[in-house]
Design goal:
Keywords: DNA-binding, Transcription, Transcription regulation. The chain has ten helices and no strands. By secondary structure, the protein is mainly alpha-helical. The longest helix is centred in the middle third of the chain and has 28 residues. It is elongated, with a radius of gyration of 21 Å.
């Protein structure tokens, strides 16, 4: 005997609609930019009604606001989890250094240039939009706190120098990773080996290897 499937609860339907719309908006932001984004294109692509879209997002600006926050969060959340799981479980100095350098090098890979560009694009889009700027600050602070926690752990274990605050180190690492976009723009592509060597030399000054 066939069973009749219950329709999703109102909250489930709402979450599904929001998710569908945000994915479509983020895709268009990344492909063609904010200036080319129109409500009609999103309605056509998603099949969502205009009434539903305006109910959830208010207007075009509200739609962009929500998409930018979701977009920025997606760039940070996976990195944050990788850092915590890869470093807060380290039991030796060598393991900590190897994992930190490995994850940092991974975040600077050539195939991540789109993420770097879109992260900076999202930040620049918040200028003149106080609400969006504040929301991005909250997401960024969460990410910085996760990196800071890693360096606090390293300091507690005696692997990271303590005359520099863990927060300053967390900001430094992010700046180092984002600066890779200048390499992306350079006509004379730097050799990966040279870039990694410079990075390792820079990082060496923050570590305090255990003495025999």
């Amino acid at each position: 005997m066939a069973t009749t499937q219950k329709p999703p609860a109102p909250q489930q339907r709402s979450e599904s609609t929001v998710d569908i719309v945000l994915k479509a908006v983020i895709r268009r932001l990344e492909d063609s930019g904010e200036s080319q984004l129109t409500i009609d294109d999103i309605l056509l692509e998603t099949g969502v009604s205009k009434g539903s879209l305006y109910y959830h997002f208010g207007d075009r600006e509200g739609l962009i606001y929500a998409a930018r926050i979701a977009q920025y969060s997606s760039y940070l959340e996976s990195d944050s989890e990788e850092l915590r799981s890869g470093l807060l479980t380290c039991t030796t100095f060598d393991q900590f250094v190897e994992n930190l350098l490995g994850l940092t090098i991974l975040s600077m890979q050539k195939n991540d240039r789109k993420i770097r560009a879109m992260r900076l694009n999202t930040i620049s889009s918040a200028y003149g939009r106080p609400d969006l700027w504040y929301a991005l600050q909250e997401k960024q602070n969460q990410y910085t706190n996760a990196i800071t926690e890693v360096f606090e752990y390293g300091q507690k274990m005696g692997w990271v120098r303590t005359d520099i605050t863990a927060h300053a180190l967390g900001i430094f690492v992010q700046g180092h990773a984002l600066s890779r976009i200048l390499v992306d723009l350079d006509h004379n592509e730097i050799e990966a080996e040279s870039w990694v060597k410079v990075m390792k030399l820079t990082f060496d000054v923050i570590f305090t290897p255990p003495t025999e």
